[in-house]
Amino acid sequence: MSQLAGIHINSNKKNTLVYETEIEFPTFVRIPLGKCSPTVSIGDKVKIGQVIGECEKKFTPPVHASVSGTVKGIDDYVEIASDGKKERVLTDRIEITNRESLAKAAYECGLVGLGGAGFPTHIKLQPKATVDTLIINGAECEPYIISDRCVMTQKAREIAEGADIIAGVLGITRKIIGIEKNSTVCGEKLSQYGLEVKILGDKYPKGAEKVIIYECTGRVVEEKKLPSDCGVIVLNAATVAKLAEYVKTGIPLVSRYVTFAGPLISDSVCFNLPIGTPVSYVLDKLKVKAQHILDGGVMMGKEVGEDAVVTKTTGAILAFDELTYPKETSCIRCGRCYGVCPVMLSPAAIDRAYHKRDVKLLKNLKVNICMECGCCEYVCPAKRRLTEFNRRGKIMLKEAENA
After folding, report:
1. Contact of 135 with 216, CB cutoff 8 Å
2. Which domain covers residue 147, as residue numbers?
3. pTM, 2 dp
4. How many structural domains compose the chain?
5. Nearest Cα to Cα of residue 293 among 274, 314, 312
């Protein structure tokens, strides 16, 4: 087996380099605090890069102001009215000499996985097992999305520098960047900086962590194991580039590349937006009126409202006139869902176990391995909401185990 299973879907992407589209700063941002508590008060003046939220538990990295201006509101977010000055906190180059300083830099940068999962980077950079391989994930396997393509086009040097920093500190001997088959132009650019470029298969979800590990190294991450347990760390291309930028400039994670695309937008465009930018602000600039908005891709994205903002994990905003959900019918036991599952689960059986509330069977069917990629639902002729039932099954199992 040279490739894991998956599905062929139209990527709606061309094999071209992608550059940032210019856009004015918004007049205000609403920055989500997540698990952090605010460290500012209404009326405070803030600068770009200033800490505005911290978590008592150091698992969650801090949140920083993405524009300069005045704090206007605080809830589960900090709203800042921009003064248009773009004043930044004075910063210096960050010195990294060992594992502790590497993890500290990632934490103080506010860095999380920019591929969508949002796992704190400083935790990944403290593996308990011996790691020999760094995989940089540049495989945007969802249709439309070109954010990482933009990063690889414009920041190939920073990606290589970030990889060198991580590899040097952790003693990693192999640095691989996995990219899509339709991103070979990026591969040519990246190879100039000493990275081993792996052109991945043309099946979705080639960018999923366990899939890209297998396709790049042939290693399998077993149930309840971490990638580091098989000697690998996987980081998104934008995450690695941002770490390098932070080390050079001291400017934390205050913006990110976001794709705006979908049937209502003629060509996918990529903006480097301050965290907290209202999605409606950008859609207005594009003269797009959308009835439905997805944060993320068509396979794994979540529908959001008109008040949505760009978060650290927002890689794409897709605009639709309508989203239709076909009527479900009974499972015909065709086995297609099993045939396309990248981790060889039986989604139909999980569906039945969930509806029977059979926790023991859910555990035996290894529901926790499900990556919620949506392949099973995509091919299901009965239009079963298999991804949703898998998700609920995992929650049901967790609640039963914690009871």
Report:
1. yes
2. 99-249
3. 0.93
4. 2
5. 314
